[in-house]
Each structure stands twice: as C-alpha cells, then as structure tokens.
Amino acid sequence: METYEKPIPKPDRETRPFWEGAKQQKLLIQHCLDCGAYQFYPQAHCRGCLSDRLDWVESKGTGCVYSYSVVHRAPSTAFDKDAPYTVALIDLPEGCRMLSNVVEVDPEEVRIGMEVEVVFGEITPEISLPKFRPVQGRTGSGRF
User: Fold this and answer.
1) C or N: which end of the chain has fewer Cβ atoms within 10 Å?
2) Which of 5, 65, 60, 63 is nearest to 28 (CA)?
3) Dist. CA 80–CA 96, nearest whole Å
C-alpha cells in the first residue's frame, strides 16, 4: 500500500463504532432506541429527541444522490491526482444523509437521484473510507 497523504480520520468515543464497522466493510449508522430516528454523523445524543440511548445498526448500504459538486481544483496537493472528483450528499434509505465521494463513474455522469451503493477503500491498516458508486444497471429513481 502506498503512503496515504490526505487527512486521516481520528476515531473518538462517538465515532469509533462507525470506523470499526467500516473496517469490516459495514456502513453503520446510529439508531435512537427512544424515538426510532436514524442519524449520521455519529453523536452522543439523538438529534430528534436528545436521548442518549443510541444503538449502532448496519445500513442497507444503498442510497441516492441528493446533491453533488465536481471538484476540479484540488484544495491541497494531496488531492491533485484525484481531480476532478465528485463530492456528494447521499440520502440513505434509513432516513439520514451522509457526505461522501461518488467513485467508479466519470464525474460528469453523476446526477441527482442516481442510485448508489457503498464501497470501502482501505487507507491505512486501521481506517477504511466508505464511498459510493452507481448501482449497476440502474438509472436512478431517487426512491428506495
């Protein structure tokens, strides 16, 4: 594996289960045991009811592009070889949204409503990043 020069996530108390799941190629999100809401990004309390009774569940690993931007000018030299690349807000079927990259497709082909599925890329022996790629054979209805 080549040296990874981009910022590396630092798991903490709230995010550690997410990163442990990603290492096992599982997209984990939080589920509130009191109000039933799902949430991403990981937090100590439910954004809906403020409960601290949160559990981790595996997402279906699919989603839909809510919005996106194609980055043509990298923010730092570490990202130069990736440009152009797509940064997108992905709506998960559980009802939460996450920021990620859309990969394995030309950035100019990404569309709002495109159906995507999670893929994981190992960046260090401890950290794997979830990204999304188009679901093969689907044009994207924007619905789950």
Assistant:
1) N
2) 60
3) 30
Q: Is the pLDDT of residue 128 over 70?
A: yes
pTM score: 0.89
Query: What total of structural domains would you count in the chain?
Result: 1
DSSP 3: P
Q: Can you read off the two tokens belonging to residue 68?
A: 């996106």
**Partners of residue 119 on adjacent β-strands:** 131
Paired tokens of 137: 């054979």
pLDDT above 70 (res 108)? yes
Q: Do 33 and 53 meet the contact criterion of CB atoms below 8 Å apart? A: yes
63: burial class by Cβ within 10 Å (0-12, 13-18, 19+)?
Answer: buried
Q: What order do you get walking across the sheet with 28-32 strand by strand?
A: 38-39, 28-32, 54-58
Between CA 18 and CA 58 the distance in angstroms is 10
Write out the residue range of the structural domain in which residue 63 sits.
Answer: 16-134
Q: What percent of the chain has pLDDT over 90?
A: 87
**2 falls within a domain:** no
Tokens, residue 123: 């960046």
- The reported pLDDT for the residue numbered 143 is 46
